[in-house]
Amino acid sequence: MSKKVVLLPGDGIGAEVVREAEKIIAHLSDHYGIGIETETHLVGGASLDAHDIPVKDEVVEACKSADAVLLGAVGGPKWDDYPSDKRPEKALLRLRKDLGLFNNLRPVTVFSSLKDASPLRPEVVDGVDLLVVRELTGGLYFGEPKEITEVNGEETGVDTMRYSVTEIERITRAAFDAARKRRGKVTSVDKANILATSQLWRKTVTRIAAEYPDVELEHMLVDNCAMQLIRNPSGFDVILTENMFGDILSDEAAMLTGSIGMLPSASLGDGTGMYEPVHGSAPDIAGKDIANPLATLASVALMFRFSLGHEKAASDIEEAISAVLNAGYNCKDMSRHARHVLSTSEMGDKILSVI
Ligand code: ATP
Ligand code: MG
């Protein structure tokens, strides 16, 4: 039974890191006889340049009919001044919405060999292994009205925070299901002392939690969570939160590891899942063969686990990443913590050699 994976390299270092991922996918497909076919399409600035649109309908359709999508990154200074409907990032919002990707998973793991890369003391981050479950298709990102209008003769910006019970229920179940396979604790993060959406969030999460008596639930206000992530990050297992809070908290959690270049993500819904590194297109280092591909390779591991149903291939990649880091290899962004500094392509080859 063959599988189809759509590759969307995008812009900047996106193309460089996805090239390494392609090698690993091909290797594991052959090794396990999975029969993965890949298909590459333009997205973001690359698509704007070629087709004057951030993502073509036929690319969205190709993604919908695939088993999984691997995305590099989109954007860069060249497109910064484009009007809002022609921004590279529009491609991401369109894909998330059209693929129904409401469940964004961002695992944050501090590798023991890299605990002194963190801006926090090594003993504070030692053993940190948490998962941010971020709602991805609701809240301030999509709520209408969303506009700049005139109020009392003055320019006024309006965004709308909106969540339905159904939207909260499905992301809550995703978080509790994930917690069951981990250490069995969910921290639901909201601003229930102020926001109506958060009051509905807290009530709904509490009700769904009753279906999971084996999982511990705590509620935490978002400001407190921002503080606890710095004070005692190993106190967290699964953090469940809405779209905007999740965006901010996952960047904060990412920095516990000391590098944005090593964190993967998965975006899941009822259909095709999409996988991408947490970092952006990094225009400052694009084209130099120095970008760290490990976030993308770890995203490929999540793809094998959640979309291709191949846990062994997923753990092969994760174990290879750990082994390579423990042996003292890393890329330029982590050179202070590496005995051997590798280029993007050398890192891809190194991982291949130990899988
Ligand atoms: P975006 O708006 O797309 O998120 P950004 O500039 O905010 O772009 P990144 O593209 O993630 O954020 O880059 C932030 C910094 O981290 C840059 O200095 C970049 O060079 C560095 N960086 C990001 N990803 C990597 C990587 N994979 N390897 C090495 N350095 C990276
Ligand atoms: Mg950024």
TrEMBL record:
This is 3-isopropylmalate dehydrogenase. Binds 1 Mg(2+) or Mn(2+) ion per subunit. Its main location: cytoplasm. InterPro entries: IsoCit/isopropylmalate_DH_CS, IsoPropMal-DH-like_dom, Isopropylmalate_DH. Keywords: Amino-acid biosynthesis, Branched-chain amino acid biosynthesis, Cytoplasm, Leucine biosynthesis, Magnesium, Manganese, Metal-binding, NAD, Oxidoreductase. Substrate binds at residues 96, 106, 134, 223. GO terms for molecular function: 3-isopropylmalate dehydrogenase activity; magnesium ion binding; NAD binding. Residues 4-351 form the Isopropylmalate dehydrogenase-like domain. Coiled coil: none annotated. GO terms for biological process: L-leucine biosynthetic process. Catalyzes the oxidation of 3-carboxy-2-hydroxy-4-methylpentanoate (3-isopropylmalate) to 3-carboxy-4-methyl-2-oxopentanoate. The product decarboxylates to 4-methyl-2 oxopentanoate. NAD(+) binds at residues 76-89, 280-292. Mg(2+) binds at residues 223, 247, 251. It comes from Natronogracilivirga saccharolytica. Its cofactor is Mg(2+); Mn(2+). Belongs to the isocitrate and isopropylmalate dehydrogenases family. LeuB type 1 subfamily. Pathway: Amino-acid biosynthesis; L-leucine biosynthesis; L-leucine from 3-methyl-2-oxobutanoate: step 3/4. It catalyses: (2R,3S)-3-isopropylmalate + NAD(+) = 4-methyl-2-oxopentanoate + CO2 + NADH. Its EC number is 1.1.1.85. The gene is leuB. The record marks 141, 191 as: Important for catalysis. Homodimer. The lineage of its organism: Bacteria, Pseudomonadati, Balneolota, Balneolia, Balneolales. PANTHER family: 3-ISOPROPYLMALATE DEHYDROGENASE. It is found in: Cytoplasm. One of its GO terms (cellular component) is cytosol.
